[in-house]
Amino acid sequence: MHEANLKIIGRLKRFVAVISSNKGFLQKFSVCDQDFTRDRKLPFPKLVLFIAKLCKKSLSLELEKFFEEIGNPIECSVSAFVQQRVKLKPYFFDCWNRLLQKSFYLYYGNAVKRWKGYRVVAGDGSAISLINTPSLKDYFGGQSNQHSDFVQAKTFYHYDVLNELILLAEIKPYRFGELSIAYKAIKETQEDMVMVYDRNFSNYRMVALHLWQKKERKFVIRAKETQRMIRAFIQSGKCSSVVEMQPTPSAIVGLKKSGF
Question: Is the same domain home to 207 and 121?
């Protein structure tokens, strides 16, 4: 699908070009209206491309290599990069990724991998470690022990497992639970998806929020053996069964918060 990949890359490049040439669009992704208006060594297009490379080495080496690769061996200091980076809103990368998704499904068409006509999308969260700086610690929080403090954040993803594509990526302060992020993310699901979750997401509210969308969402959730209905099913010796879930008081409160 070499041709499809070229079309996707072309569309992503045009998106950056349109933004960088339109002051109104540029302001939507800039911290201040005056950002990216002056000629710099790292203007908007080069900045987002450099960040998208996901640098692995030291910034100074990566910057030197980057400018060599684009045939423009201009020296750009780490300080200059940091000053430019803070001008860019993270919202840009969310929009860019959504364009990537739409372009992928558009240009790959019937070649998109599906299971019985559905996209198989896994939903899961994790805790990630961040650099221990005062600003990150104040915002994200984390954990501590007798030796040191650890700055951490909670993340949550929707991942198209057959096509290896991240559809949703959220990062929140550490105090946020995976479930609270997952509940809100259900509104991002679509009719042609089968959502897959692990045992941490097995509860009444999670099931109800999928079923009670304007058009119900398909899902599979692994269940905990400690749940009463699961124990009863195992003891029955059956291969399959229709069971009933009863809402807990907390599930009722949560569903009311979700507008039901």
Answer: yes
Per the CB < 8 A criterion, the answer to whether 123 and 185 are in contact is yes
Crossing angle (nearest 10°) for helices 44-52 and 2-20: 140
Per DSSP, the three-state class of 28 is helix
Tokens representing 3 are 């041709």
pLDDT number for residue 210: 96
1: confidence class by pLDDT, cuts 50, 70, 90 = low
- Pairing, β 149-160 against β 142-144: antiparallel
Owning domain of residue 70: 2-91
Half-sphere exposure for 61 (CA within 13 Å, toward CB): 4
User: Does residue 215 sit in the same domain as residue 129?
Assistant: yes
Residues 6+ away with beta carbon under 8 Å from 239: none
Examine the domain organization and report whether 120 and 241 are in the same domain: yes
242 and 138 in one domain? Answer: yes
Q: Is the pTM of this model over 0.85?
A: yes
- Enter the tokens of residue 218: 């398909």
Give dist(CA 175, CA 152) in Å, integer.
9
Please answer whether residues 196 and 172 qualify as being in contact, where contact means their C-beta atoms are separated by less than 8 angstroms: no
Residue 68 carries which side chain, given as an amino acid letter?
A: E
Check whether 228 has a pLDDT greater than 90. no
Over residues 209-225, the pLDDT tens digits come to 999 999 999 999 999 88
Q: Is the pLDDT of residue 155 over 80?
A: yes
